[in-house]
């Protein structure tokens, strides 16, 4: 085996494109909801790889699935199918509204497939005039040029030249604005059933039911981006299952692979027919390694024990954050669903979410932000209560430092 070179955070600056600015420390090992860096310093992980590590780090079911499949078959291409992909697709369709699954490598790719399918469906069924896609301000759907254009955050999409056309945005939870924008030209409405990157914003029930009704009225498809909300994150396999609203197309990723890159687009048989052979594809999509791991994750997550446990952990997290707020008065709002939790900072600390992230890391706890004024928590769905309490004790030390 080749000697491993010694790398430091400074090496990153010498060899990597500077579109990221990662933390000073470099994690080297994880187990459950704890992570250790090069110096052996321990951290409690409330970030979960941005809502990805739904079973924590190195869960035995995942390690076993990866090891077993790694000794059998890694890659074939979609000239062939494979058993793990078919088994995973069957489990997903049995557990959801969907009849058909398309596998990709990421959430952006799953959303890209969803948008292309919607456009192709509209063209085949209604003609080229029906091409409008309506999405929501502060939404996030990925970083490909199509998905970043549909996402409602210009800071991510501006500066790369002409954008794909036929895309409009309205405010989330504003049904009147959506209705004013829609017409018979609308082919799809794309939305997160709980906005993640945009600040952890839940939908009003009347709003989300109204979106479904408007899609029906104008014969448009409803696309749910469940990349962050899906696969147990909100306490059901997918968030739509708690809302009483069923989409036509659903995108899944992040927790789907528990840390192994995989994405999936789910839809009905009638809509799926419009992606005929040759219309879309992915070299790695549906590869045996990713699907074997995701199947193992599914078997753990899609159980009453885990999904009920998410709701219990949500209550613990929120109650402890409320206690912190009573002591320090730093939060304006604590919100979210399941283990997708956002704590919006009070006016005195507005715009300083990253300061709390950095202070947390110094105290041995990893958290996220969702915009400049929201601290976000997306830990493992099975994080032990002791780790929740220890992580929040460390976060309190970070708060105390900032508050002074």
From TrEMBL:
Where in or outside the cell it occurs: the entry states:
Cytoplasm
Main location per the UniProt record: cytoplasm
Residue positions binding pyridoxal 5'-phosphate: 107-108, 140, 225-228, 283
Q: Which HAMAP family match?
A: ArgD_aminotrans_3
Q: What cofactor(s) does the depicted protein rely on?
A: pyridoxal 5'-phosphate
Q: Which UniProt keywords apply?
A: Amino-acid biosynthesis, Aminotransferase, Arginine biosynthesis, Cytoplasm, Pyridoxal phosphate, Transferase
A GO cellular component annotation here is:
cytoplasm
Q: Which domain of life is it from?
A: Bacteria
Which GO terms label this protein's molecular function in UniProt? identical protein binding; N2-acetyl-L-ornithine:2-oxoglutarate 5-aminotransferase activity; pyridoxal phosphate binding
Q: Which InterPro entries match?
A: Ac/SucOrn_transaminase_bac, AcOrn/SuccOrn_fam, Aminotrans_3, Aminotrans_3_PPA_site, Class-III_PLP-dep_AT, PyrdxlP-dep_Trfase, PyrdxlP-dep_Trfase_major, PyrdxlP-dep_Trfase_small
Keyword Calcium assigned: no
Q: This chain belongs to which protein, by name? A: Acetylornithine aminotransferase
What reactions does this protein catalyze? N(2)-acetyl-L-ornithine + 2-oxoglutarate = N-acetyl-L-glutamate 5-semialdehyde + L-glutamate
Chain's gene name: aruC
Sequence similarity: Belongs to the class-III pyridoxal-phosphate-dependent aminotransferase family. ArgD subfamily.
Q: What else is known?
A: May also have succinyldiaminopimelate aminotransferase activity, thus carrying out the corresponding step in lysine biosynthesis.
Residues that bind N(2)-acetyl-L-ornithine: 143, 282
Under PANTHER family, the record lists: AMINOTRANSFERASE CLASS III, SUCCINYLORNITHINE TRANSAMINASE
Q: Which GO terms describe its biological process?
A: L-arginine biosynthetic process
Q: Which positions bear N6-(pyridoxal phosphate)lysine? A: 254
Q: What quaternary arrangement does the UniProt entry report?
A: Homodimer.
Could you tell me which SUPFAM superfamilies the record lists for this protein?
A: PLP-dependent transferases
Q: How is the cofactor bound?
A: Binds 1 pyridoxal phosphate per subunit.
In what pathway does it function? Amino-acid biosynthesis; L-arginine biosynthesis; N(2)-acetyl-L-ornithine from L-glutamate: step 4/4
Supply the Pfam families for this chain.
Answer: Aminotran_3
Enzyme Commission code: 2.6.1.11
């Amino acid at each position: 085996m080749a000697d491993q070179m010694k790398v430091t955070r400074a090496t990153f600056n010498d060899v990597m494109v500077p579109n990221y600015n990662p933390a000073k420390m470099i994690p080297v090992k994880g187990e459950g909801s704890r992570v250790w860096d090069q110096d052996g310093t321990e951290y409690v992980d409330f970030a979960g790889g941005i809502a990805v590590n739904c079973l924590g780090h190195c869960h035995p079911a995942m390690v076993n699935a990866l090891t077993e499949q790694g000794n059998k078959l890694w890659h074939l291409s979609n000239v062939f199918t494979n058993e793990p992909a078919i088994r995973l697709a069957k489990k997903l369709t049995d557990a959801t509204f969907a009849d058909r699954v398309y596998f990709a490598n990421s959430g952006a790719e799953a959303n890209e497939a969803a948008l292309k399918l919607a456009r192709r469906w509209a063209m085949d069924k209604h003609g080229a005039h029906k091409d409008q896609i309506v999405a929501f301000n502060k939404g996030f759907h990925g970083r490909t040029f199509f998905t970043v254009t549909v996402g409602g955050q210009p800071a991510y999409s501006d500066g790369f030249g002409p954008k794909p056309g036929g895309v409009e945005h309205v405010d989330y939870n504003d049904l009147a604005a959506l209705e004013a924008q829609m017409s018979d030209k609308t082919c799809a409405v794309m939305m997160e059933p709980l906005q993640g990157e945009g600040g952890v914003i839940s939908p009003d029930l009347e709003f989300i039911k109204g979106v479904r009704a408007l899609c029906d009225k104008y014969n448009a498809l409803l696309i749910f981006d469940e990349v962050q909300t899906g696969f147990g994150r909100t306490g059901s396999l997918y968030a739509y299952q708690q809302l009483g609203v069923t989409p036509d197309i659903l995108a899944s990723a992040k927790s789907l692979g528990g840390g192994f890159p995989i994405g999936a687009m789910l839809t009905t048989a009638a809509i799926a027919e419009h992606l005929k052979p040759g219309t879309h594809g992915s070299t790695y999509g549906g590869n045996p390694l990713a699907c074997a791991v995701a199947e193992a994750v599914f078997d753990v997550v899609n159980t009453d024990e885990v999904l009920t446990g998410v709701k219990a952990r949500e209550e613990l997290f929120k109650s402890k954050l409320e206690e912190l707020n009573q002591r320090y008065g730093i939060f304006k709002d604590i919100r979210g669903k399941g283990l997708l939790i956002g704590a919006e900072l009070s006016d005195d600390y507005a715009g300083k979410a990253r300061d709390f992230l950095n202070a947390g890391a110094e105290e041995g706890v990893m958290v996220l932000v969702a915009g400049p004024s929201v601290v976000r928590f997306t830990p493992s769905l099975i994080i032990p209560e002791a780790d929740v309490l220890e992580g929040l004790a460390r976060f309190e030390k970070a708060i105390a430092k900032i508050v002074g």
